[in-house]
Design goal:
The protein is an alpha/beta fold and 202 residues long. The protein has seven helices and seven strands.
Amino acid sequence: MAVWCEPKPLILASQSRARQVLLANAGLSFETVPAAIDERAIQRNSGLATGGEIAVRLAREKAREVSSRWPGRYVIGADQTLECDGHVFNKPAGRVGAASHLRALSGRTHTLHAGVAIVRDGRLLFEDLSVARMTMRELSDDTIETYLNEAGDAATASVGAYQLETTGIHLFSRIEGDHFTILGLPLLPLLGFLRGQGLLSL
């Protein structure tokens, strides 16, 4: 039985399979409606410099755009950025881009910023930023090539060229942070807000 109490399901303004799985496993009823925004243009024009600020801004913009098309519905926007040594990374372009990302992150600690926002009828009701710190092993070129062969297209589906829930786990020596944050959705604060609004039965 779903724990969502509203007659109409939540809307997730994201195509991320990992976020969909997290909400489904938590028993929330939801529909997926991708946001029609240009994320890179918003990032360039916002004047925001840090990964955390960008993640929250993009989460908010995704939720607002979908909310404008779905009145009366609770819309969840989410975004994740990766920051290493002051540089904010975007999703890699192809295998060459993924290899470049991994060489840049090899032997270093980077930060994942996961932003989430809830909007209803254009009004921002909630937003949150969670952070995880990820320390990658020293990776040889051979290790990177082997990993990319194993990961396939999944290597270009996430900002760091890895997915921790699959073979990407082999790339790391230390992880500090919430599992849900690493997967791109700060689930505990999100559920806390929904529960506080009387929208959950648990």
